[in-house]
Amino acid sequence: MKITKRVGDVMKDDFALVDGLITVAEAIRIARDKHIKALVVNKRDENDEYGLVLMNDIAKKVLSQNKSPERVNIYEIMTKPALGVPPDMNVKYCARLFERFGISRAPVIDNGKVLGVVSYNSIVMFGILAD
Fold first, then answer.
1. S-S: 127 plus which of 6, 91, 113, 131, CB 3.0-4.6 Å?
2. Cα–Cα distance measured from residue 58 to residue 14, given in angstroms and rounded to the nearest whole number
3. Secondary structure of residue 8 in the 3-state scheme
4. Pairing of strands 17-18, 113-119
C-alpha cells in the first residue's frame, strides 16, 4: 500500500509573517533569528494577497544592486501575490507546480490563513520516502 504524502505533512510551520513596511535589515534579522530562508508578507487587508521574500531576493535586489538594507522596504522586493498551496495537495503535484512556475518554496494556505511554508527541500527530505 502506497502512502501519499501531502504538503501539510512536510511543510515547516516555523515561519515568519511580517509587515511589508519593515526594512530589509529588519527582515534579515528576523530570518537569522528564526533560522528561516523565506518571509511571508502579511496582507494589508482582507482584499489583499500574501507576499513572499526569499533570501536570494535580498541578494539579487538589494546586495547586488548596492542598495542599503536599512533604506529598502520589504514591499519593494517581495513577490506578490505569492503562489500559495493547500495543505492537502499531494507533494508530487506541489513539486510539479514549483517546476512549472520556477519557484522553490511557497506558503501553505488554508481558509485564507498561512499554516507554514513548503519548499523543494522539505518535499524531498520528508515527502518521498515512507517513514
1. 91
2. 20
3. helix
4. unpaired
CA distances from 14 to 37, 42, 118 (A): 11, 15, 11
* 19, amino acid identity: D
Residue with cell 494589508: 44
The grid coordinates listed for 131 are 517513514
Contact 40, 13 (CB under 8 A): no
Q: Give residue for cell 517546476.
A: 99
> Is pLDDT above 90 for 79?
yes
Rounded to whole angstroms, the Cα distance separating 106 from 84 reads: 6
pLDDT tens profile 106-121: 999 999 999 999 999 9
Retrieve residue 10's grid coordinates. 512536510
Q: Which of 43, 36, 48 is nearest to 19 (CA)?
A: 43
Distances in Å between the Cα of 47 and the Cα atoms of 14, 43, 50, 112 are 25, 8, 10, 11
Reported pTM:
0.91
